[in-house]
Amino acid sequence: MIFDNVDDAEIVLRNAPSSNGHILVTTRYKEVARDIQAQCLYELAPLDRKQSLSMYSGLRKMWDSNNVPSAAGNSKRADEDPSQIEAFLAELDGLPLAIEQMAARGSFTDKSTHELHQDFRQSYKRVAAGVNKTNKKSAAGGGGSSEPSTMSLATVWDIQFSEIRGTVAGRILGLLSLLSHDSIPTNLFMAEDDWDEEIYEMVVEEIDAE
User: Are residues 119 and 185 part of one domain?
Assistant: First the structure.
């Protein structure tokens, strides 16, 4: 049995079968691994500077060529300073998911690494302000604080979600986040004045495929 991306040890403790077998748990939180008393721990290290640069550059090269057909678009990154790219990647804490998301954002929105870095820093301030408030409340109650790697990933998600806030895509995501993935009623997505027929058909196809 596999428990993927667990953020609460109780999920495993309540649902793990008592019969013989192996259970694989993945998590971003050390306290989860501690609380479930795992017999074997394997901690994945973040990517180092060279690995991060290789992953980011490789993804940008692949996606830029697919999404920026013009020579002018491709030249936008041609003269980028490698040290500037490394500085940006350092703030992503070597997390493959964060690097992948930011590389995709750069390619699909035709943004340079410098522009991505600016977006990241602006969002980081907003996320940090919220985390500081949470940590103060947690400290008052005897709890811990957020790890740096959690901050960088939270910042990446904040950037992504901020762009779809107020859009039809954002409304669909907000609705789905409140529903069980089983038996979602498709009439929730019936086309109305502010719902696009194409979006409705896409959602229904995805739900039927589950």
Answer: no
